[in-house]
Amino acid sequence: MFLFFFFCNGCVRIPDEDAGEIPGASVVLSPGAKESEEDIMNYVANNAAHYKKVRVVHFVESIPKSPSGKIMRRLIKDKMIQKMKTSSSTQSQNV
Q: Do residues 41 and 57 touch, judged by C-beta distance below 8 A?
């Protein structure tokens, strides 16, 4: 059961050509956790409204936080967009 597979997560809105924006999540896995991106997306899909389903999952070592402890969503969003661009460019080169 997926009860404590992550320490911390940050959810952000990611630009999408078709939908305008889609939900994405940066997740810090607990030590020894073996969940995949698909496992996390399925868990959220079963426990959230359809419009809140996470479409993109990004595993990170730590979530960036400000000195006051707030999650810095702008940095998370920038890293996720950069990862999506690099993965799409490598996929297009492999075709």
A: yes
Contact 4, 28 (CB under 8 A): no
Specify the 3-state DSSP secondary structure of 48: coil
Q: Which residue type does 18 have?
A: D
The DSSP 8-state label assigned to residue 30 in this structure reads: P
Each residue's pLDDT tens digit, 29-54:
888 888 888 988 898 889 889 888 88
Helix (H) or strand (E) holding 14: strand 6-16
- Structural domains in the chain, CATH included, are 6-94 (3.30.300.30)
Over the stretch 66-76, which tens digit does the pLDDT of each residue have? 999 998 999 98
